[in-house]
Amino acid sequence: MFIRKKPSWQISENEVTPEGVYLNRRKFMMGAAATVGAVGSAAAVHQLANAATERTLMPLKHSKSAFDPSETLTPYEAVTQYNNFYEFGTDKSDPAEHAWRLNPKPWEIKVEGMAEITGTFALEDVIDFSALEERIYRLRCVEGWSMVIPWVGVPLASVLKKFSPSADARYVAFETLADRKQMPGVRGFLSSLDWPYREGLRMDEAMNELAFLAVGLYGKELPNQNGAPVRLVVPWKYGFKSIKSIVKIAFVKSEPTATWNQMQPNEYGFYSNVNPEVDHPRWSQRTERRIGEFGKRKTLMFNGYEEQVAQLYAGMDLKKYY
Ligand code: MTE
Predict the structure, then answer these.
(1) 34 pLDDT exceeds 70?
(2) List of E strands, the chain
């Protein structure tokens, strides 16, 4: 089923310079959908897609929006080879080189805290793989580079609601796997961060329509280096909020620990909304380098998603709550 209504945040796939691989996939998907039309089952489409092209996911909903010629999809190669995933090392090329050690199947997520339903769940019980949709979002890293990525996944709100969080749960906290055997960056005394990698959102942020749990990109399952099998995507915030390879979700009353905020609170705030008006103490946040482009482009307030998220911060001093 395709959604006809176009939300204003959606960068359509028409407005981007399509990748060959991506176009081929979509062509394939249309073929697959037509073939299975007779059978009439979305699950069958999914199965067929998986069988014919290994590790291909079927985004069942894709929204269109007005053409914006300034936005180009970042090539698949860049999205999957220029990464930050410190569990595999601190260089941009480390995740692509070492993340083959991660085994994302089977995967379990522990859900705890202030909710009616808690426990340890198989990924398939947390994510409804028959309701996948595609979201083309900008990703702005706090370091000053950005990408445009076609994610596949489900709205975070749809997942959180399943567990019936209590009204007292004001935040949701996330944790990444921290397994020395699979993650060479987690080993040793010189290990760069206090593991596990942790992040959090205020509950109203988590329930915002933009907050997304991705299980794929470019129509394929998430490569390990991008946070397989499931990672957060919060496109109005700096990339480090988009925590990868999630193994724990906790509903909590107070602001949870967030890794970078804990490490260097004067440089990385809990909110970390993309904001060209608030510089990082060591560099300006006014511009960014879009991977694959020459020169710099202006960084947009809330990474261009002001219309969807500005109301979450009404009355807040964003220089104080950076
Ligand atoms: N999640 C974990 N667990 N570990 C990390 O090092 N890096 C963050 C974020 N999520 C990171 C993480 C940062 S700084 C960014 S910019 C994005 O992942 C990068 O996502 P990408 O590699 O898919 O582009």
Answers:
(1) no
(2) 61-62, 108-113, 119-122, 133-140, 145-155, 171-176, 198-202, 212-217, 220-221, 231-233, 246-252, 287-290, 297-298
CATH code for the domain of 213: 3.90.420.10
Residue 280 included in any domain: yes
Question: pLDDT tens digit string along 255-280?
Answer: 999 999 999 999 999 999 999 999 99
**Residue 105, in any domain of the structure:** yes
Q: Tens of pLDDT along 45-60?
A: 334 344 444 478 866 5
Q: Is residue 4 part of a domain?
A: no
Residue 27 CA to ligand 1 centre (angstroms):
30
Task: Name the DSSP class of 236.
Answer: T
Number of domain units in the chain: 1
What is the 83 CA–ligand 1 centroid distance (Å)? 7
How far is the centre of ligand 1, averaged over its atoms, from the C-alpha of 277 (Å)?
23
- State pTM to two decimals: 0.86
Name which residue sits closest to atom 5 of ligand 1, judged by CA: 85
